[in-house]
């Protein structure tokens, strides 16, 4: 699947990613990348990037990456666990996340998501996401 196809698949769904201004920017065989603005939508009360916004970016990228590794007509990926270490505060600009697979198994996937400040390259957040791969019941499978 190409980046444009992933964007089309996720477009117009009124998701949290849309509300936070998350944009997908790159897709290769090795990673999925996106960026998010650091502004009023993603600030905590003291004007810094909210840790929850960083986690939302991490889970968005890791979940999409996981989805691209399965047969979406027969399986789905759902989050089991996410953790995040918030390493540096950011007040403005953009942060960029890169999700890379650590483990792609039959029933689980583990993804590492590194979030950096787009301007300085400083590591802002390091996250790990574990996904369960589940079989879709026949009634939930897309029509052939």
TrEMBL record:
Keywords: Hydrolase. The keyword Hydrolase applies. Residues 46-121 form the Thioesterase domain. Coiled coil: none annotated. InterPro entries: HotDog_dom_sf (IPR029069), PAAI_dom (IPR003736), Thioestr_dom (IPR006683). Pfam families: 4HBT. It comes from the Bacteria. Belongs to the thioesterase PaaI family. This is Uncharacterized protein (TIGR00369 family). It comes from Hymenobacter caeli. The lineage of its organism: Bacteria, Pseudomonadati, Bacteroidota, Cytophagia, Cytophagales.
